[in-house]
Predict the structure of Pyrimidine operon attenuation protein / uracil phosphoribosyltransferase.
Amino acid sequence: MQKRLVLDQQQIGIILRRFCHQLIENHDNFENTVLLGLQPRGSILMDHLAPILEEISGVKVPFGYLDATFHRDDFRRRDFPLKANETKINFLVEGKKVILVDDVLYKGRSVRAAMDAMIAFGRPQKVELMVLVDRKLTRDYPIMPDYYGIRVNTLDSQYVVVEWANQGQAENAVWITEKVKS
């Protein structure tokens, strides 16, 4: 299987710090801002981002994890049932500026489902999207990130794999790989 490194650990660290500085520039003291990591992989990115944001800004920004499994458009179309992840939101999003955080933006379907799921926690004032990797030429929905780490051109025959050291990998990295043909 061919594997091409797109981001290494150092580059990911730089991107996470850049995200934090961009958020500080765009959100006055985070008084009305919350972050939601999209389960399952956006929550891992959120766990890396939140402590860096607190370190740089000096503000503990409320964050949670949002599962959109039951809001997906393919939920009932699969041969096997999807396994839901935990939604953990200890605040209302009513009237808040919400930043949805995910690792890879591909078709846009997960983000659309997440916006549907988020409404159960209130109507936000504004919603922004932050992704580590934007697969820019593959959208099914007109969804674009407000913050992105890197934009890549990929084929449908490829995967973008995000690896995290705290998830058992050697180090943080982003790879483009070819899908295994069956």
About this structure: Residues 9-26 form the longest helix (18 residues). The chain has one domain: 3-68+86-178.
